[in-house]
Amino acid sequence: MSHRTLCSFCDEAWWNEARLRCTVCAVPLSGFRRASLMHYRCGDCLTAPPAFDATVALADYRAPLDALAVGLKFRARLALAHEFARRLARSAFDVFDTLDGRDRPDVVAPVPLSARRLVERGYNQAWEIARPCAKALGVRSDATLVRRVIDTAPQSKLDLDARRQNVGRAFVVAKTVQGLHVVIVDDVMTTGATLDALARTLKAAGARRVTNLVALRTPKN
């Protein structure tokens, strides 16, 4: 019996992800715009930049990989979190190596769940990814850096504008982030509304830079 977390089919689907992505929001790019010699940005991030500075995504949220996210989030397949973390850390190293010493990450935190949802689920899938990812990166992790103070409706049921309104005031920073490069980890990024709201809250509290690490990214906002 194999002890591998992923079957060969999912593993091949993962490693066949060779798309060029926007360096800010990680949406796949077909025709791209060059913002500088090394940075590519989508039209949305050029015209209306989000509060976060960069996003690393492993692959598109599509079959068969979408089943992995569902298994982690709703079926407690926690071994998948370590698989996501290992691959995210490897990809993040490539990005962080391009930064000078002042811009290296200081702390890794998950997108927080509300207290009610955490009790219902029994775990925060983002934290299950963030903790081993931070360890692999050699960066401290903190599950309580940011708190979700409003129990928002599920984002999957809302359009983009409603998503932004839904999470606009959902978070508070619980500890000092003044001058820090904060890395936020999540399992799936759809429109980026939650991550944008979180980054705005962190920046308002004094964070210097916010980078997202997400396992899967929907192909379109």
UniProtKB/TrEMBL annotation:
Residues 84-214 form the Phosphoribosyltransferase domain. CDD domains: PRTases_typeI (cd06223). It comes from the Bacteria. Gene3D superfamilies: 3.40.50.2020. InterPro entries: ComF/GntX_DNA_util-trans (IPR051910), PRTase-like (IPR029057), PRTase_dom (IPR000836). Pfam families: Pribosyltran. Coiled coil: none annotated. Signal peptide: none annotated. Belongs to the ComF/GntX family. PANTHER family: DNA UTILIZATION PROTEIN YHGH. This is ComF family protein.
